[in-house]
Amino acid sequence: MTPVARNRAPAPVIALAILLLASSARPAAADVTAFLGLSPTPERHIARGFSGGVSLVIIGFEFEFSDLVEDTTDALPGLKTYSGNVFVQTPVEVKGTQFYATAGGGGYRETLGGAQETHVGVNLGGGAKIRLVGPLRVRLDYRVFKLQGSPLNETYQRFYVGGNLAF
Fold it and tell me: Diameter of the chain by CA atoms?
């Protein structure tokens, strides 16, 4: 066999492997969530928001907006976060539940009365999406937000329950 013939032999094998992988790939799945929750930072107050994302079997990407409601009477600051997140999840549901861990970053605006701080922050968390019927799921999520700059509270926690629609 000549050196040229030896170099050409792997090409059909590589092309066939790529074709098999591409034909067996699962299409990307997407979902949207609307949620209500609580934050114990600095004391319990209401959180609300929405998210949308796309997943590629195990790894996914998500955008999220969250709003912790300001309460000037009890001196509880409001916090709006806008974040992009990467998550890893179980590739299949376990008894109707899909678990995930997430990390991300973005911007925030913390307000209390007339004072405000706008900067960037990071978040880390995890949760579960529990199938109800068809594409409808309940989503449980816990996050810890670490804020940069000079916020009144450098670390916020949030727990929410949301309605999730997969498509």
Answer: 86
CB 70 within 8 A of CB 77: yes
Q: Which helix (H) or strand (E) is 7 found in, with range?
A: helix 3-8
- In angstroms, the CA 71 to CA 65 distance is 19
pLDDT at 46 over 70: yes
SS3 sequence of 123-147: EEEEEEEEEEECCEEEEEEEEEEEE
Residue 3 has pLDDT above 80, yes or no: no
* 120: phi then psi, degrees, rounded to nearest 5: -115, 160
Are 153 and 139 within 8 A, CB to CB? Answer: no
What is the pLDDT confidence band of residue 98, given thresholds at 50, 70 and 90? very high
Distance (Å, whole) CA 83 – CA 77? 19
The answer as to CATH 2.40.160.20 being correct for domain 27-166 is yes
pLDDT value at 85 more than 70:
yes
pLDDT on residue 15: 76
> For residues 64 and 52, what is the distance between their CA atoms, to the nearest angstrom?
7
